[in-house]
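Task 17 of the worksheet. Students: predict the tertiary structure of the chain below and write it out as structure tokens. Keep your answer in the requested format; marks are given for formatting as well as content.
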Amino acid sequence: MNDTPQTPSGLPGLPPGATARIDGGRASIILDVTGLSPDEADAREGAARAAADAAGLEARIARTASRVARRLIAVASGKGGVGKSTVSANLAVALAKRGRPVGLVDADISGPSQPRLFGVEDATPDAADKRMFPVPTAAGVPIVSMGMLVPRAQAIAWRGPMLAGALSQLLDAHWGSADPLILDLPPGTGDVQLTMVQKHRPAGAVIVSTPQDLALIDARRAIDFFVKAGVPIIGLIENMAGYACPHCGEVSDPFGSGGAQADAERLGLPFLGRIPLSRDVRAASDAGTPPAAGNGSDALAFDGVAQAVDDWLRANGG
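Model answer:
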């Protein structure tokens, strides 16, 4: 009998992603399970064993997986209270409507709000291999959030290393084919932002501001942070831009008008669009039904922003 190791052109019945090396009566099988769920990986391993059994061979199987390269889109602001989480949620939903297999990471670890915005506050992520499975939502965007892992009213008062570890855990969930991931960042330029740019490297950043000067000052700090870190600025969004009276229809500008667009032009950055101040957006968000999932007037502004971000993604890798 020839005991010289051989690499056959293919062992009949091997599943996709498997290669076999025959050594006497043994088949050493390398099984690539990159991007598969644990159940899918187990099924492929079972098919590989069945192929070896059918050939009368003892099977030794090693699983391998490559880290899936996913584009991370950071949604950031220099200060709180500008509606960044609402914009993040609805941007993700609007991108999903355009056919993007998008996921959302609630990286505002100390103040997670995405479970409320998507109506999954009572959901608890499943886990396998010490990694979480994102929670599916009715809007078609899977999400992960620390808000699903701690009691709702419990404060999360962690220092830098714990925040960094939590962010890595959220990003390392079983995301499958999701790409891109929208990151709803905490306000400011602290530990979470530093960990993100140093370890996880976003493909680009979207900056959210209201039109008022105070918010724009802090938005410029956020822009400066990403520019110095070498992260491309996809553009600026002006949130809470104009309020239409539900009784008379007159539009007023309680936070001013056009400030973010003027700043974008002054800095040579793209302006992605305006999101009006709307009672319906507030009510839908509180109810866990992102307005971008519908077809009403409130969805149109988010659709326009998503179109601009989608165009940027296509111009930067498809």
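Marker's comment: The radius of gyration is 24 Å. The longest helix spans residues 297-315.
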